[in-house]
Write a structure and sequence with these properties.
By secondary structure, the protein is mainly α. It has helices at residues 2-9, 19-28, 32-45, 48-57, 64-71, 75-87, 107-117; strands at residues 62-63, 91-96, 99-104. The chain has a single domain, classed as Orthogonal Bundle (Arc Repressor Mutant, subunit A). The protein contains seven helices and three strands, in the order ααααβααββα. Helix 5 (64-71) crosses helix 6 (75-87). The longest helix has 14 residues, at 32-45. Residues 30-124 form the HTH arsR-type domain.
């Protein structure tokens, strides 16, 4: 009963809108498309293998087989993980003969990875 009362106390007792406050907040909020994109990126970053891949790519461009060895997954699984990261524009690749080398897509990807992991290129991966 006491919990129900506290719950009610946290709610507004009257319906009063502060349009100027709402408008101020709305001007600063991201668009729905930005929120959707960010949500997809965060879902990708929630996977430890993908975080390890992105962390490694902060330091060095690596081929699929090296990334597979680093993360202890097979090459097929690695290719799938890289495809997901590529679709979200976090990584890109170049082919040399039959070997695909992956790197972070650019400065935006680098900044995302560094902020999420706390790693900077000057600090070795633990």
């Amino acid at each position: 009963m006491a919990e129900d009362k506290r719950s009610l106390e946290a709610e507004c007792e009257v319906t009063v809108l502060h349009p100027e406050r709402l408008e101020n907040v709305r001007r600063h909020l991201p668009t729905q498309q930005t929120l959707d994109d960010l949500s997809q990126t965060l879902k990708l970053l929630a996977d430890p293998t993908r975080l390890l891949i992105l962390s490694a790519l902060l330091f060095e461009e690596l081929c699929v087989c090296d990334l597979a060895a680093l993360t202890h997954v097979n090459e097929s699984t690695m290719s799938h993980q890289l495809r997901l990261l590529r679709l979200q524009d976090l990584v890109q690749f170049r082919k040399v003969g039959r070997i695909a080398y992956y790197r972070l897509s650019g400065e935006k990807s680098r900044q995302v990875v560094m902020r999420v992991t706390g790693i900077t290129p000057e600090v070795p991966v633990p």
